[in-house]
Amino acid sequence: MSGRAAASGRETIERIAARAGFEVHWEDANKATHRVKPDTLATLLTALGLPCDTREQAKETLAMLDAERAEPPLPPLVTAECHRATALPVASLNAGATYRIELERGGVIEGRLGTPKGESPLLAPISEPGYHVLELGDQRVRLAVAPPRCYTIADACRDAGGPPEARRTNDDAPRAAAIWGIGAQLYGLRRVGDGGIGDYTALASLARRGAQAGADAMAISPTHAMFSADPGKISPYSPSSRLLLNVAHIDPASVFGADAFAAVLDAHGAEGAAPLREQWAALEALPLIDWRNVVKLRLTVLRALYERFCAHDRAGTSAAAPLARDFDAFCAQGGHALEDHARFEAIDAIQRGQHGIGHWRDWPDSLTDPRHPRVQAFAREHRHEVDFHLFLQWLAAKGLKGAQQAAREAGMAIGLVTDLAVGCDGAGSHAWSYRDDMLQRVSVGAPPDLFNQAGQAWGLTTFSPRAMRTQGFSAFIDMLRATFAYGGGLRIDHVLGLQRLWLVPKGASAADGAYLRYPLTDCLRLIALESLRHRAIVIGEDLGTVPDGFRERLARHGLLGIRVLWFERSADRGTFTAPPQWSRTAIATTTTHDLPTVAGWWSGADIAWRDRIGQTAPRADGRDPVALANAERAADRHALWRAFQLAGVAATGVGAPPKDQAPIDEALGFVASTPAPLALYPLEDLLGLTDQPNLPGSIDEHPNWRRRLDAPLDALFEDSALNDRLLALANKRGRAARSSTAPASPATAPSESPDKP
Length: 757
What we know:
By secondary structure, the chain is α/β, with parallel strands linked by helices.
């Protein structure tokens, strides 16, 4: 043990860690049990604000945690579930104490606490979901009462006029909705005049095209805000903030018109540089996104439009400034979160550009606190610059909302399914503006497993579970609302993090981490409540080492899981699961952004890429690992082809196609035949592409997050091959709906028994 752990003692450190929610002992993918190092626990405890560097500190921290456990205070927010008695997490209330609940929509409920012998005091069941106010004596707390489940696909289809067949043919529809959608990497979309990156206008076009083909959902890569001053940070899963939007996807012509945009492009660029129009066209012609230059040029163009906006719209009369009024309303609605982000962007640009400082913790002390008077003074002194970043967020919000509106108006029951990253960059605006809510100097990741024997540290931070409770889950709720606001569905990346997250101390090996438990019950209830309020479905990415019972918990609350073709296999991996045996409480898809496409898997392109960039580990027995991987893939191809034949989506009596002729239609048809309520077809597979968007474990060795479609969307949809493929898949999903006997939703019958965390 190091000095820190030795000074406090292993036993004391482990007791503190257990009280704080760490799993001192954990089980890996091979069912082997491990014990977390005391040094790791000590470092992680400090990150939670529980210092134990010395024996005296450890003693005080343990005493505080023991006191909290013996007499827990009533937290600022208590979650409950409709129609279920609620156990209050406090033991010091008198038996039969009276309470009063002010309902969010008006009305009052009064009653007395139930006090079962030896149990926590109980609130009687409440039938109305919402954020209510609970009064207990002189205490007033927020009471978040959730519906039994999230808003579901069946709900969305009903609200849209019934399942697809009912909406499109007026026939009596089956009880279970079986719809389909397209998955797309927003940045990779291509349209004429986009300047080298996918934008919200292209997304709206794709949504319309998809809806015309029968799609009811459009799942997209995260649209979280990135770093305007550091466009080299490009992973959409490592954002600056999960509260705001990526301004790189703004179409400059969308609000101010083609003429204003053209006037800016026709202006000369910087001295010695090519005119803006030439730069725009050159970037658009590239096969891969040049993020640095694309973002730089886009900001130049948008800044010129901003100056025009300030000179004409904001300075005009009330009759001439409808856009200015809309902008002002947007800023007022955005509140502190929006203003903080804009201030951060302005400060970050100066600190990086003038001082070479890349992390806000290294800024002058007065600027590291968003509530410090110096930050307020900065905002006054640089109001024009701060407003520029508000302007960018306004345009981004209009663009993304416009894409969702286009999807719904074209007939989609759900429309956009936005993506919520598991964390954010600790150097970004989210961690700066919510610094008391975030973990510091740790990275979210994953322990060693069958696919990544070294473990993973993603360089992300997220909320502290202690802060979530003490701050009344306000930051978590803000994040949910920000992501739900722009679509009809939400995908939660690494949803396992709602129960526990693998945390790695800064600078440590990814294997030297520990699991920290999160308040799963509270999180699921809040997600269900916000899902209902936004009328949006919820999908949880539940891939990896899944704790026992976790998927059942998700299903009970109406969160859909994800099932991927490559992983739906028998225990011995000898056969692929037949479509009828796929889950009815999860969406079905061929692949994800982190996995091979159908063409890439069939050809072994992923194996070749991993060998090319050094991700193939040598074997102790001296055998060639690449040859072994290819031999295993050959056997897998035959097994998958056999599964296709048995499912009736491939011709019988013929062998599997060669490596360079991937059975893409068969793979998509196989997924379409499952009883999943939503089949999601990645655009890469619909187009038969070989390369996957991201290769985990790589940065610059593989062109992650840079690939663009080969042709503009209009040209792709003029190709009969794509349209024929979509028509065939729509027909197959229609047959899946007619043959399905699944219930309309996974709702749980109301119960009078308490639901305890």
